[in-house]
Structures are given as structure tokens and as C-alpha cells.
Amino acid sequence: KMKLIFGVMLGLLAVSFVNAQNPIIRNQFSADPTARVFNGKVYLYPSHDIPTPQDKNLRKDWFCMADYHVFSSDNLTDWTDHGVIVTQTKVPWLTKINYDMWAPDCVFKNGKYYFYFPVGGRVGVATADKPEGPYTVLDKPVEGIRGIDPCVLLDKDGKAYIFTAMGRISVAKLKDNMIEVDGPVQTIANLPTKGLIEGPFAMERNGKYYLTYPHVANQIERLEYAMSDSPMGPYQPVGVIMDESPSNCWTNHHSIVNYKNQWYLFYHDRDYSPKFDKNRSVRVDSLTFNADGTIKKVIPTFR
Ligand code: FUB
């Protein structure tokens, strides 16, 4: 009998631990999380969903995003909100305020942090000396690129590649200055021709390149990936990282990061907004690789 009581207590403890885990950002809606490790901490650069202001002439059933916050943590449970780093009203080249600050990324190169953000169909850049800012928005977007959801892959040889989406995924090499493309923008071949809209995330592990992306294979997005021996491809689709949201959130958007020798998948769902899936919340779960480098499917931790 004692064993049974102990078992039940352990079970309750496990449930309350899981309860404490997801979603990880609790003071606001957050989506499209790019997690990066800088200076021994995980920095999280998500987009920031807000309820649509009623006094503006905006689509009521759509994404509404006016700025970006950055968060950091050294245990993936306690997150510090460092506040707003970039806001739509302070982008010098932006001609129309449209509440469309979608999925961003941030990388460290040449002693600086480069924050890439999509707005108005272009990719803006802001730079800082520290991962949490303050950031200065550069006076023009990345020339030659139109699209959303930038992801920058910094390769081991120091070269940088920018992936973006616009109904398909494209890649271009970045010049050493990190703000101009070096050569043509290329469409990634061999990926699904339908249902691939947005959200690329690219990374390297053990000499293999992974291009991961949301794909609408059925009704809503699920996370899939392709692999290659080189950053610009050719990539071959391999499989599914995470199935469609159990709560039917139409989008999913993610990043994969190694922190303290464990891989993690950051993604989002609609934990705090069951009736409106454009107000999302960032989540995290462990991710593991098989011996051959393929990825084991991640099952989301439920609340
Ligand atoms: O957050 C707005 C858009 O929804 C992102 O750009 C997409 O990846 C999807 O999550």
C-alpha cells in the first residue's frame, strides 16, 4: 500500500513538473521562437503576438505584431524578459505600419549581434554589442531579399547563409558585412511543392546540414526536415519532427538548439488562447538524433 501511495505521489509530482514547463513565456503572447546560445545562456528571439487593436483598420482574424522582445534563461524554466528591442515605428526605411513583424533571428559575428526581422515583406537588420541589446536598426533592409521568416546559418568556416520564405524557401550567401547578399538568391529544390509557406530554420550538426520547416501536408502545419551535405543544398526531405498541433493551432514555427549537451526544439502552440490561434505561446521540448543523424519525432509536452 505504501508503494502505491508513493507511486501516486511521484505521479502527481511529475504532472506538476510538466505543468510548470510549457508554455515557457507567460507574461505575453509569443511565437516563432529562435533560440540561440550566447555567453552560456539561451537567448530567445520570438515574435510577439498582440490582440488586434480595435481602433485600427486591421484584419481582426489575423496576426498582429508590432515589436520584438528578447528573453534569456540559464535553466530553460526561468526566463528574463529584457523588454522591447525593435519596434515597427522605429524602422527608418519602413513606409507602412502594418503590424507584421513576423519571425526573427539573431546571430553573433564580427563581435556584433545581428538581429534579422521581417516586416513589410523585407528583412531588416538591427545590431547590438550584447545579445539583449540595445539594438540599432540599420537604415536599409537586406538588399536583394524579399520574403519572411529569415534564418541565418553561420557555418563552421565563418560563412553565413540567409534562408527566407515566400511560398517556397530560398537561400543566399551573406557577405562578411552580414547585411548584403553575396551572389544570387536560390530557391531550395526538392522540397514539397504544396503547403510550404514559411518558417525555415537551418543548422549544421556533425557535417550534415538540416533545413527544417513547417509544411501543410494535411490541414495545418507540421514540422518537417530535409538534409544535405552542403548549406545551400541540394537537400533531400527526410521526415517529420513534430506532428500537427493537438490543439489545432494552424501555424507552428521552431528552432533547434544545443544547450549543455542536450538538443531542444523550441516551437509554439496556442496555450493561452484556445479560441484564437494567432495569439500563440512559446514551448520547448527535448529533441534527440538517431545514430544516423536523422531526428526522432518530438511529442509535445502537454500542459
Ligand atoms: O508569426 C507570423 C507567421 O506565422 C510566421 O512568420 C510564420 O512562421 C507563422 O508562425
TrEMBL record:
UniProt keyword Protease, yes or no: no
Sorted UniProt keywords: Carbohydrate metabolism, Glycosidase, Hydrolase, Polysaccharide degradation, Signal, Xylan degradation
Record-level GO BP terms: xylan catabolic process
N-terminal signal peptide: 1-20
Highest taxon of the lineage: Bacteria
Site annotation Important for catalytic activity, responsible for pKa modulation of the active site Glu and correct orientation of both the proton donor and substrate: residues: D149
TM stretches of this protein: none
Single GO molecular function: hydrolase activity, hydrolyzing O-glycosyl compounds
UniProt similarity note: Belongs to the glycosyl hydrolase 43 family.
Protein name: Carbohydrate binding module, family 6
Species: Paludibacter jiangxiensis
Classification lineage: Bacteria, Pseudomonadati, Bacteroidota, Bacteroidia, Bacteroidales
Span of the entire protein shown here: 5 to 307 of 441
